[in-house]
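Quick log. Single chain, no ligands specified.
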Amino acid sequence: MSNIMYYRLNDRYALRGWKGLPYALGKYKLLDMSGTSRSLRYSADGQPSFFNEEQFETVRKFDGITPVDESSLPVSGKELIRNALEYDIITGSENPLPELTDFQKYIYYPALFVREVIWSVTGKCNYRCRHCILSAPDGIHPEPGIDDCRRIADQLAECGIRSVALTGGEPLVRKDFLQIAEMLTERDIGISMIMTNGRLVTPELLDGLEKLGQRPDFKVSFDGIGYHDSMRGIKGAEEAALSAMRLLVSRDFAVTVSMCIDRESAGSIRETVNLLADIGVESVGVTIPQNLGAWRKVGNDRALSFEESMEIYLEYIPHFFEDGMPVSVELGGVFNCNRKGTIYTIPYVRKFNTDEELQKHLICTSARYYVYISAECRLMPCLGYIAAEYADEFPDILEIPLKDALSESRAHDIMTCRMREYFARNEKCRTCEKRLKCAGGCRVNAMACGGDNLGIDEEACRFHLGSYEERIRETAGNAIKRAGLRENIIGMIPRAVPGEG
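-> predicted structure:
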């Protein structure tokens, strides 16, 4: 006797597919089901789940009206149903259920899958930062017109991109910033983050975002107590940033901070982190400026070497645990630890088991899934490529549609580049005993070291050959023991979407 059941996807799930990955289930936050045109209704909630063709045949039956005879399903199909019920992905009934909404029905996007776009909506800025990678103080980058922004928003939706981080220059210098936010909202594209110096963060801005149903995180630049004005080139920048953070926290917007240190400000990390924690900041990322853009011209007298920065990070790590881990912290690419916990990662250290596994891996997972659109409307693998000598060779998506640029362009070639291509180019890395842990380092760092995107990241070499991993583990381990905590260490191995390597 057959066991006929009906299954329906719960409202926050939708059937999706992309070029090369046609079988997916997207998960979304339902922010507003009223259907009003000016309020965000859906926002991406994590990455989609991807399936093979056989699995997706079962998933397609979760439409509420297709009878499912479980006895006729393969073992994988039965297991899929069990898991979907357990994790509240579907609802089951002996009787037909309501059909899927139009949003939930299968949509195929004719483009390479991308998790998020970081979009420079302007190249202009109201500050004169010493270390601007875009050299925004020199005004060399444009600001796309509102009609061009609308065309880009249309293309994001066409490619199934539901999450965008907005940056600049300084994105809030645009008087039509909320108009851009509204464009994204109308296309059900969530603004995940706004990267800002904070001076133009106002109650009116936050009112406008809330009206649209958008509650992005804010990443505010803050380069140390007593040093921020100097780094940003504007008097009053420090107090403006602190005021913005207090306002954001009071309105329940999540705040993270990006802190660049130099020879003068390096000793301010502990005081700065603790002050920001008192304000309510959730995480602080500390780094030294890359030798690109404006910093290449003016930073030499204040720039820290990689080795100097490592000693500064090693000195701060015990303070972080002594102070009760008040925020999540990221120190360069060498130490990340979550707030109020001891689970830390060392991003420079990967965990590949074999050369075969490493050779097949993407040269940069972040560049593959988190792409950048410049103020010139060019698609790039990440913001760092704006400083590449060949930046003008990346596709202009106002001339070449984004869906095509994602499939065939210089940006696509870098996004999908594998480690085998890198090793074919660099014998030094191919024969290095640290290759399974290093995996080539960062491609933008390689450019900052004087190479190109397939060059050697000399900082990664110095990290691995300088025994810094062992020193970090020893320093963190001793600090955790002194605090009476339990140590948790995670090795990093960025993973491609199943089916892509």
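Residues 4-109 form one domain.
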